[in-house]
Design a protein that fits this description.
- With 202 residues, this protein is mostly helical.
- The protein is 80% helix and 0% strand.
- The protein has helices spanning 7-21, 26-30, 32-49, 53-72, 78-103, 108-111, 117-138, 144-148, 152-168, 172-178, 180-201.
């Protein structure tokens, strides 16, 4: 399978479909931790077979974090574990992405990570999307009206929309076609995203 499936297309097509199906298929929804770990493991194998070692490393981190949380809290509802783990890990990766830029000026090691920022950012977006998908079903029964009533959800929705715009414009094809000036303006929104995430997390 790894000969015919690219890790990029697995992420672009496979992950959104999986996240969309999470609340619609009971066996996935109720055992979401197992399925997230399975998807992460599949991505580790796929990326490793294509020698995309950094992508495989990121997937390993996701797999390790979800596995550790699942083992430490075996009695907790898997939906609650998944929504909290995905939110926390997304927030952590977002901080790493934002710190790589400034710190790359002072550290040669960090500078080596600079070219991988987009991978971490896209991973943070997918984790945020997973969090939103579970919360939308678990707390609001898939009702946009109910979801928009609490004021705090404004921060979450806004942050996710900005993350989505940043993730979609992180692909090489988009960068070549939107122009450098417009691309920079879009990614300046990442700093606004950071502030929204901090407020939302608090």
């Amino acid at each position: 399978i790894s000969k015919y499936v690219s890790p990029v297309w697995f992420a672009v097509i496979g992950l959104p479909i999986f996240i969309f199906l999470v609340p619609l298929i009971p066996i996935i929804y109720l055992h979401i931790m197992w399925f997230v770990m399975g998807v992460a493991l599949a991505f580790v194998i796929l990326a490793g077979s294509r020698k995309k070692y950094f992508d495989a490393l990121v997937a390993c981190v996701v797999l390790a974090v979800f596995t550790a949380i699942f083992l430490f809290f075996p009695q907790t509802d898997q939906r609650v574990l998944a929504l909290r783990t995905s939110a926390g890990l997304s927030f952590l990766l977002l901080n790493v992405v934002l710190w790589i830029g400034p710190w790359s000026r002072f550290s040669r090691i960090v500078r080596g990570w600079y070219c991988h920022r987009r991978h971490l950012g896209v991973t943070a977006f997918f984790l945020g999307l997973l969090h939103a998908s579970i919360v939308f079903t678990y707390y609001f029964q898939r009702s946009f009206y109910q979801a928009l009533l609490p004021f705090f959800t404004f921060f979450g929705f806004t942050a996710l929309l900005i993350m989505g715009a940043v993730a979609l414009t992180s692909w090489d094809w988009v960068q070549k076609h939107v122009g450098n000036t417009r691309w920079k303006k879009i990614h300046l929104g990442l700093f606004l995203l950071y502030l929204i995430f901090v407020l939302f997390d608090i």
